[in-house]
């Protein structure tokens, strides 16, 4: 690297950080966000949280109903993730550079994926709410569509990364397209495919709570209900059960990953 | 009648350079033929033209009495079941077991559904085990391929080619990634295959001494053209220089 280029690079770094700082100040002044002021509200906010969001014995009695609702949410999240994984696997094979049948299908698969991925899941829930009404199907579909977008993208990358050498070998034995996909491509991408699907289940359990608030189903609905009736003790219990569930699911999927790979 | 006949084969990847220039030869059944030549001479391309993993521009390939030049999907599949292939990097599915990889060699004979559901007959499975036994790796049948050594993996590759019941096996640098001992084992097996099963082998090789020792016939390529074709006895020092060029030869012998 010449000295001139080196100096130029240093200048670029300085300029880059200056621009970021300036942009931060401008945007905080436009949005009237005052950092000092927001920091001073922290103590009172925490006092409120600790005095109100406590799990009491009374709220504990509602645990059985909460758990049924939580089950509903968990199973909906799992069902949405696994069905989405099945469709995404197909789209992934179509969309991947290495396994595509032709460019038309590849582009279609990629468009479907990016369309469903780039609209936030909350927006999907609200859009579907109008056409499907307040029921668990709406929640399922919102999660399903979001998952298809994400998983297709992830599967395309997993398949692209898979070693092509065994594909060549199977082609040379006279195997058909679908045989090659199922015997050479899928077995090699399987660890990533399963890993991404497990990740999707974890994410969907979190998202299902939010989607549930909108669609009036599952644990999200219970959360919304108790929150609006100002029963903060139960809200705390619900939050606690969600946290526990997410941690448990994460531990389980980590274990599954370890076994499979 | 010869098993394989190649007539006036030409191939280029772009308009400027010809990878293969007017290749002509015939190969008899049951021969072990080595193809030698420097890197980039077109050895791999030549091999892949025979089972049409690569399409050639013009010329004719006659395999087992049939002109395969214009074969399309179904006929091509049929052709490939008759031609096994062994690769430098073994090209196995590393996460699957040895026996699964060997049985992949039967996929060409199966319908898509039979293949997807791994519906292999008892006879096929027994064949797979007896091939593994012949190649001395039957005790590894249920191990994942990525747990085997290079030499063992190459033997799995050979078993996969053999279970196709091929008339011809194409070996693309089968020993280039192996140590001398494993190389010797692999070459001995290939020799044994041609002798005992009357299967023809065409082997791309870098090592001239190995080619001399094992093959019935040597074909040398340089810059896409055949520069030598004959038995190892005819491959004199002078002709070797012609194949590899004076300076590189010195480099090899040192």
UniProtKB/TrEMBL annotation, chain A:
* Transmembrane segments annotated in the record for this chain: 12-30, 75-95, 235-256
Pfam families listed in its UniProt record: BPD_transp_1
Domain ABC transmembrane type-1 as annotated: residue spans: 70-253
InterPro entries in the record: MetI-like, MetI-like_sf, PhnE/PtxC
Its predominant location is membrane
Care to name a GO molecular-function term for this sequence? ABC-type phosphonate transporter activity
Gene Ontology, cellular component aspect: plasma membrane
The alphabetical list of record keywords is: Cell membrane, Membrane, Transmembrane, Transmembrane helix, Transport
Instruction: Quote the subcellular location field of this record.
Output: Cell membrane
Entries under Gene3D superfamilies matching the protein: MetI-like
How does this protein lie in the membrane? Answer: Multi-pass membrane protein
Concerning its family, UniProt says: Belongs to the binding-protein-dependent transport system permease family.
Kindly provide the name given to this protein in its UniProt entry. Answer: Phosphonate transport system permease protein
At the highest ranks, the source species' classification is: Bacteria, Bacillati, Bacillota, Bacilli, Bacillales
Automatic annotation (TrEMBL), chain B:
Q: What is this protein called?
A: Phosphonate transport system ATP-binding protein
Keyword annotations for this protein, in alphabetical order, are: ATP-binding, Cell membrane, Membrane, Nucleotide-binding, Phosphonate transport, Translocase, Transport
Query: Which GO terms fall under molecular function for this chain's record?
Result: ABC-type phosphonate transporter activity; ATP binding; ATP hydrolysis activity
Taxonomy of origin reads:
Bacteria, Bacillati, Bacillota, Bacilli, Bacillales
Q: Which residues cross the membrane?
A: none
Single GO cellular component term: membrane
Checking Gene3D superfamilies in the record gives:
P-loop containing nucleotide triphosphate hydrolases (3.40.50.300)
* Superkingdom: Bacteria
Q: Where is the ABC transporter domain?
A: 4-248
Query: Species name for this entry?
Result: Pseudogracilibacillus auburnensis
């Amino acid at each position: 690297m010449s000295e001139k280029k080196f100096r130029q690079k240093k200048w670029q770094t300085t300029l880059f950080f200056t621009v970021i700082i300036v942009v931060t100040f401008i945007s905080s002044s436009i949005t009237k966000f005052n950092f000092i002021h927001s920091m001073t509200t922290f103590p009172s906010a925490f006092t409120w949280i600790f005095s109100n969001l406590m799990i009491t014995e009374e709220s504990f009695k509602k645990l059985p109903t909460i758990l049924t609702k939580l089950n509903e949410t968990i199973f909906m999240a799992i069902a949405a993730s696994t069905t989405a994984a099945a469709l995404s696997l197909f789209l992934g094979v179509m969309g991947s550079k290495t396994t595509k049948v032709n460019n038309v299908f590849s582009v279609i698969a990629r468009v479907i994926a990016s369309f469903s991925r780039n609209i936030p899941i909350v927006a999907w829930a609200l859009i579907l709410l109008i056409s499907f009404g307040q029921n668990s199907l709406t929640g399922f579909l919102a999660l399903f569509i979001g998952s298809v977008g994400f998983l297709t993208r992830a599967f395309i990358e997993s398949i692209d990364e898979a070693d092509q050498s065994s594909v060549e070998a199977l082609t040379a034995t006279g195997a058909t397209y679908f045989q090659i996909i199922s015997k050479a491509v899928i077995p090699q991408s399987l660890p990533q495919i399963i890993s991404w699907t497990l990740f999707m289940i974890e994410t969907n359990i979190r998202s299902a709570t939010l989607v549930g608030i909108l669609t009036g189903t599952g644990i999200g609905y219970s959360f919304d209900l108790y929150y609006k009736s100002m029963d903060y003790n139960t809200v705390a219990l619900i939050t606690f059960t969600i946290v526990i569930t997410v941690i448990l699911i994460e531990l389980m999927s980590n274990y599954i990953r370890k076994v499979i790979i | 009648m010869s098993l394989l006949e190649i007539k006036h084969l030409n191939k280029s990847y772009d308009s400027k350079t010809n990878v293969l220039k007017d290749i002509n030869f015939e190969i008899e059944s049951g021969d072990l033929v080595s193809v030698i030549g420097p890197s980039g001479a077109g050895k791999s391309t030549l091999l892949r033209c025979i089972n049409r993993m690569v399409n050639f521009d013009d010329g004719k390939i006659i395999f087992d009495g049939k002109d395969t030049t214009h074969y399309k999907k179904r006929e091509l599949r049929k052709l490939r079941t008759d031609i096994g292939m062994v690769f430098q990097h073994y090209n196995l599915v590393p996460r699957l077991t040895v026996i699964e990889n060997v049985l992949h060699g039967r996929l060409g004979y199966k319908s898509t559904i039979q293949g997807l559901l791994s519906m292999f007959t008892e006879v096929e499975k027994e064949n797979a085990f007896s091939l593994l036994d012949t190649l001395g790796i039957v005790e590894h049948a249920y191990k994942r391929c990525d747990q085997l050594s290079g030499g063992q993996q190459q033997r799995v590759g050979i078993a996969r080619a053999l279970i196709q019941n091929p008339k011809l096996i194409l070996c693309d640098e089968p020993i280039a990634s192996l140590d001398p001992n494993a190389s010797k084992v692999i070459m001995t097996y290939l020799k044994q295959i041609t002798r005992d099963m009357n299967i023809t082998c065409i082997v791309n090789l870098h090592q001239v001494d190995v080619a001399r020792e094992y093959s019935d016939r040597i074909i040398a390529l340089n810059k896409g053209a055949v520069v030598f074709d004959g038995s190892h006895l005819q491959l004199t020092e002078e002709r070797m220089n012609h194949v590899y060029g004076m300076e590189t030869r010195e480099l090899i012998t040192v």
